[in-house]
Structure formats: structure tokens, C-alpha cells
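Now for a specimen:

…
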Amino acid sequence: MIIKLRMPLDSTFLSEIFYEAVVYILNCVPESSFNLDEVRLPDDSLRRAYESMVDAKIEEISITLTGNDKVEKFFASLNITATPPKKTYKEVLKILKNSCEKIPTIKDAVALQAEMKGKKVFLDLPERCSLAALQLFKVDRYTGFSTLEMNTTSQQLGLRASPIAILLGLLGVYSSHIITVTTVESVYHYFLFFSPDEIASLLASGDRNRLLILYGIKEALRELLSRVLRGSVMSEVLVLEVLLNAEIRSKLASGNLDKVGFNLFKTLVPIR
């Protein structure tokens, strides 16, 4: 399995969610190699990545699918007959883990990209993109595509994906999700990603040991933020908690690292 890394490395949610999936798979599958242009993995790596998901972490993902998310078509493309009892990402991920033997081995190259043709953006080679992408992948509304020169500032672009691209995106959701916080007026979903510069530096290094160290630091930070965000959403509190956290400082020191770059995303869903 080869993943061609053609998607721009930037701070959009779309880019971050897919590069998060790549890092997660590399963390799970030791027989891998990577650079800035491509990732080389065993053909069954997607299946192994879904097998590795932790049930308790899946249970924490309280994100609701929208009416436009046609997961039945996605499951049908994988020959999965199960139907989620509730339209949530948690139930979708449960089905994929329990049916992971249906996830195909991939011998062809996967093109991780965001290519615009006409009024559509394709997340793999266009001929493979038979499905509408999930609405969560569209939260930043295609930043980087809406320009005056391209005359797309007032248009809604359709986001199309292959089944493999959706599988990758869902892995990114699983790996990056921190917590869902509900208030009287809104529901907030928090996600943690490596910064684009950090991902670029990591991929360019091709160093698996460095990847394992960085992913361990990210998981420690994700767990810390989950605890903090349950009680407060003040940015000053978040910064102080991270700076003073002994476990994260120890992991940085043991990895001989001065700093690691992260992006924290918060998406908002109003309660009507």
C-alpha cells in the first residue's frame, strides 16, 4: 500500500484530519517507511489500524452525523450490511472495527489529495470518488480553494471521496478527537493535531523512532486536555495546565525535544 501525499499541508481541518490518519497508521504499523512525498505500508494496514482502535476511546466520540451523511452507501461499498443504531461517528467506528475483515487490502497507490475539478473537490483520484464526503470534513468550507481568481468565493463545492479516503478520514477523527462539551446553547467538539510544520518535519525525517516519541507526547497531551476541558474552556487555564504538566515535560526531555507544535480545533454545533 502506497499513500501519495499530494494534499496541501496546512492548518485547515480537512488537511489536518487526513494527515492525522497517516500518522496514526504509521504509529500502528511497524513495517512502514515514509517521506514528504509518500508512505509505504503493508497492504493490510488499514485493516490493522481499525483493529487497533480502543473501545473506550470510541465510546467518547459523541459526534452526530448529519442528514446528508449517507453512511449506508459507504458501508455498501465495503460490503458491510450492518446499520448503525444511531447516526453517530461512534456507531460508525464500532461497525468498522467489528467488521474490519471487510476492509480491503490495498495494492494500488492511494492519492491523498484535494483536487478541484469544476464545482467538485476530489479526495482521491476522481474516478475512484463515488461517494459524498462526510459533512464533518467540510467544516472549513474549502479554505484554499475559494479565491477571486478561481471565481469560487460564492460557490458551494461538492466534496467527493473514495471509500478508502473516507476510511482514512474516519481514522483521523478517531485519533484526534479529545472531548465533546455540551452547554445550554451549543455542543463543542475538540480535536488535537500536530501542526503542519511538525508533520512536515516528521515526514521529511523518515524517522520511525521520532514518530513514536511524538505520537506518545500527543496522546499524553490529548488525555490532559480531555481532563482540563471537562472543567474549563479558558485558554489561559489550558496553557498553564500544559506548561506545568510533569508527564509531558518528562516525555519531551526523554525524547531530547525542546518543543512540539500542535493545533487545537474547536467545532461548534448550535442547539436549536
User: Anything to note?
Assistant: Residues 2-270 form one domain. Residues 142-154 have pLDDT under 50 and may be disordered. The chain is about 40% helix and 20% strand. The radius of gyration is 18 Å.
